[in-house]
Amino acid sequence: MTTSKIHSNIIFSQKVADELEKIVKQYPVGKRFLLTEETPRQLCLPQLEKLIEDYGIQVTSIAGGETNKSIRSVEKVWEFLSKNGADRKSLLINIGGGMLTDLGGFVASTFKRGMAFVNLPTTLLAQVDASLGGKTGINFNGLKNEIGVFNEPDAVIINTGFLKTIDDQNFLSGYAEMLKHGLIKNPAHWDELMSYSLENIDYDALQEIIAHSVVVKDWHVQNDLTEKNIRKALNFGHTAGHAFESYALHSGRPILHGYAVVYGMLVELYLSAKVCGFDQNQLQTISQWMLKVYGKFDITPSDYDSLYELMTHDKKNEGGRINFTLISEIGQVAINQDCSKELIFEALDFYREL
Ligand SMILES: O=C(O)C(=O)C[C@@H](O)[C@H](O)[C@H](O)COP(=O)(O)O
């Protein structure tokens, strides 16, 4: 498969420069901008050198990593756009991982109240999740994605060839979001992920599996862009997961987003068993598999209050209660599930004792 589409603005292609050229040429000379970060600048941009030169695309980059998903980085890019004459008819091309596409989308959505942007995700996490669906934003006050807007990119070009540039941890981080897609919506996708070899990556088979994951993500986005209802399913594992991620960052033991989501899913699978009748044997099997592949972020009971406090900031919460997305079986989701503090602590016990 060299080029294919899931819907009009999600394009799978190994010929990134050709696909991008079709978009870039629609924008005036001097109004084409590109934002990237260090690693993709070195490993992915060389493929686009000719296009950048031919079309006079103005390039800037920010430092990578979760700590740079900040208002400081946003200001830096706003300043670059402002100094170089960007306007509402301009285009911003975001090339990088999930942090970069979230931040770049936010910059483009807010500069002069909005200019066009396209995403070229270079990590697995960005290809199956972050670059799609229009959740743009940055971290603030130690909280994940606290500031942002919903605004879909004009196009997302997915080149699975870029995945050869990422390390094993980043691969597993993206795989976590695919596991989530299987668990919330598609048992067949879950089964194919369970039988895919993580020791010996088959990149040809991977493109097909990624496409299945993208279909799950896109289905939720198309049905509920602004997360009033069923899109909350995509947040499975994230109520506890974001708490783990923020807590890990504060305590100087940062973990990748997908790992945090796996730890969050372990907590929320336990809650799923307690609240929605998720099968106990399956809980054990999945937990052992996740533990073997992703290890664990160690916690003690003295961390529970801080983790709980972080969960109270989750964006799905309403009326002072923490709203979890849980599952009753693989593929069957239950949104807006209220859990008591005692039960959440019990789930943290389950996780801690794994
Ligand atoms: O697209 C969505 O909706 C998701 O919740 C997908 C998540 O995997 C993603 O990490 C998202 O960025 C988290 O968003 P947040 O709203 O919890 O900050």
TrEMBL record:
Q: Which Pfam families does the entry mention?
A: DHQ_synthase, DHQS_C
What residue range is the signal peptide?
none
This protein's superkingdom? Answer: Bacteria
One GO term in the molecular function aspect is: 3-dehydroquinate synthase activity
Q: Which principal EC class is assigned to this enzyme?
A: lyase
Domain 3-dehydroquinate synthase C-terminal: where? 174-317
UniProt subcellular location:
Cytoplasm
Q: Does the keyword Nucleotide-binding apply?
A: yes
The cellular component terms of Gene Ontology attached to this UniProt record, alphabetical and capped at eight, are:
cytoplasm
Supply the SUPFAM superfamilies for this chain.
Dehydroquinate synthase-like
The record, for InterPro entries, names: Dehydroquinate_synthase (IPR050071), DHQ_synth_AroB (IPR016037), DHQ_synth_fam (IPR030963), DHQS/DOIS_N (IPR030960), DHQS_C (IPR056179)
* Biological process annotations from GO: amino acid biosynthetic process; aromatic amino acid family biosynthetic process; chorismate biosynthetic process
Q: Which reaction does it catalyse?
A: 7-phospho-2-dehydro-3-deoxy-D-arabino-heptonate = 3-dehydroquinate + phosphate
Give all residue intervals belonging to the 3-dehydroquinate synthase N-terminal domain: 61-171
Co-factor(s):
NAD(+); Zn(2+); Co(2+)
The answer, when asked if Zinc is one of the entry's keywords, is: yes
- Which EC numbers characterise this protein's activity in its record? 4.2.3.4
Keyword annotations of the record? Amino-acid biosynthesis, Aromatic amino acid biosynthesis, Cobalt, Cytoplasm, Lyase, Metal-binding, NAD, Nucleotide-binding, Zinc
- Name the NCBIfam families on file: aroB
Q: By what name is this protein known?
A: 3-dehydroquinate synthase
Q: Which organism is it from?
A: Sunxiuqinia elliptica
